What does this fold into?
Amino acid sequence: MHKYCRDLAQALNDAGYMAVSKDEEKQYPWKEGLEISFSMELVKERMWKPILEALEGMRSTEEQNTVMVGEVFEELNRIMADKGIHVPWPSEETMAEEQR
It folds into this structure.
């Protein structure tokens, strides 16, 4: 799941999408609408977990099982496809290729 979130963050950044900061406690000179690049953590917190909660009623990724992971992926993949972005689920083969 973390690999997928990292790959999706990269795809969103490559497509020119930016995340808007939700950190209201910090003071920035440009506070309103601060745009930041996507990261694995942002994708997990702002995309994966809300879908997990909507589908399964839980926010903790530690509690999800492989069926839930598949359901969240399918839903998130559908949403991203509507924006023209497709990131396949990482396979053992693609992960081994990246380690070489």
Remarks:
- Residues 36 and 61 are 24 Å apart (CA to CA).
